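can u pls check wat happens w/ zinc ion
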Amino acid sequence: MILKVEKVGLGIETEDKLLNSLVENGKSHYPNEFGGFLVGYYSDDNRYLHITNTILPKSFKASKCSFERSTKGIKKKLDTYYKETPQKFYVGEWHTHPDNSPIPSMTDISAINAIINNRNACLANPVLLIIGYSKTKVDFGFYVWFENKLYRYE
Ligand SMILES: [Zn+2]
C-alpha cells in the first residue's frame, strides 16, 4: 500500500503483512485499545517513508477509549533494528480504536505533541496510524504531523 498527501510531499509505504499483524495484535486486546511503536526508514530522496516493523510496548495502560504505552525497553529494541539496518528508526506510533472510526481523539493529538516536544526522539514528522475496527470491518487512518498540523493520508 502506498499513500500520499500532496501538501506534505511524503509518501508512506507499508506492507499488508505488517498491517495484518497490527490488526491481529490489536484485536487480541478487544474491547480495549492496543498499540505500539512504528519502525521504518526513508527512501534516499526522502520522499517515501517505508514502515517496516512494530515494537510492542512492554507495559501499558488501556481501556475501551484510551491507550498509554510505556517506553521502557524501547531503546534497546530500536538499537537492535539499527544494528541490522542503520537507516531504520522510530517513525511513529499506532493504536486501535475498537468499535470506532480511526479519527484521532484529543488525547491522541496531545500525545503527538508530546512526541514532537521530546528532544530525545528527534522526530519532526511522526506518523500516527489509527486502526478503527469492528466485527465486520477494519479501517486504517494514517496521519503525519507536518508544520503543526495532523494530515490524513487518503
Ligand atoms: Zn486514539
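Residues 55 and 143 are 19 Å apart (CA to CA).
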